Amino acid sequence: MSVSDRMRKTIGKLTQSEVAELMGEKPTRVNSVLNGKQKVPEDFLITFIKKFQVDANWLLLGVGETPKPVSKPEPTAYSSSKSCSKCERLEEYLRDERAEMREMGKELRELGKENRELVKENRDLGKENMKLVRQLASQNSPDLMPRNAKASKGSSTYSPAHCRLPEDARNKDKYEERQE
Question: Which end of the chain is more exposed for a tag (fewer CB within 10 A), N or C?
Answer without folding.
Answer: C
